[in-house]
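WARN retry 2 of 3 for item q-0093 after timeout on previous attempt; input resubmitted unchanged.
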Amino acid sequence: MTPRTAQTSAPVLEHIATRWSPRSFDGEHAIPEGALRGAFEAARWSASANNTQPWRFIVARRGSETFRKIEDTLVGFNRLWAGSAAAMVVNIAETHDADGAPRVWAEYDLGQAVAHLVMQAHSEGLHTHQMGGFDREAIRAAFELEDRFLPISIVAIGAIGSPEQLPEQLRERELAPRTRLPLEDLILLND
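OK item q-0093 returned
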């Protein structure tokens, strides 16, 4: 397999350089009860505007009814590979408090929490792949979410599997070198 460690232009933490998003998950691997606790604890301690902590999660292990409901909402290529992950997590932003006051930073705060979750899972030997390709309204309906709860993304979690199990087009993407825009292209102004 192609090396997965990022070739960075400045030193970064090892877990950042080695984190990547596989599509090939080991369909036999099961996450033991309690094994994701550290990942969610990392998410819990993420920063948030006014300490509102507007993140909520639906956690499902492969084989459960909740997993099936989440899998049924996936679209496009995600339907081809995500079902072999050991778990899926729906990431939800609480966009309004219980009184209806808007939480304008909720999606940003959720993103930080999910980044913490992903990095902690990676540090514990698990792999993750974040997805936006799902039917948001189907998630809302399947789990009877209140209007203030907005599903933003889904994370597949598990142990890495063989790229050979993927359809050819996805296998090519799985084995392709990792790339990113140059750092200089991302910084608009640096005075």
